[in-house]
Design a protein that fits this description.
Blueprint lengths: L9 H14 L3 H38 L13 H11 L2
Helix pairs in contact: 1-2
Length: about 90
């Protein structure tokens, strides 16, 4: 392990000390666990943002190329007007 210095507020340190005492562990261990958890959440947020970006890019592509996305009758707006088509029998 590598030793590093971190500055905390008095309130943060007191809360960590109390939690460490309750869990019968060290403040250092709590800090390491917190950093690990933060990294996991941050990675998930980045993955989620990448998926969102790709989905939006695909939606843009669909709007720009409607001829590629049509049903067997040639309709390109089935996802928008499905009730009209299914209820009217068109």
């Amino acid at each position: 392990m590598i030793r590093t210095m971190v500055q905390l507020t008095e309130e943060q340190l007191q809360a960590l000390k109390e939690l460490a005492r309750t869990r019968k562990t060290s403040v250092a261990r709590l800090v390491r666990e917190s950093v690990t958890q933060y990294m996991v959440v941050t990675n998930k947020d980045a993955e989620r943002e990448e998926k969102r970006r790709r989905a939006l890019a695909f939606i843009k592509y669909i709007k720009e190329h409607p001829e590629e996305f049509r049903d067997i009758e040639g309709k390109t707006d089935v996802s928008i007007n499905h009730d009209e088509y299914f209820c009217s029998g068109n």
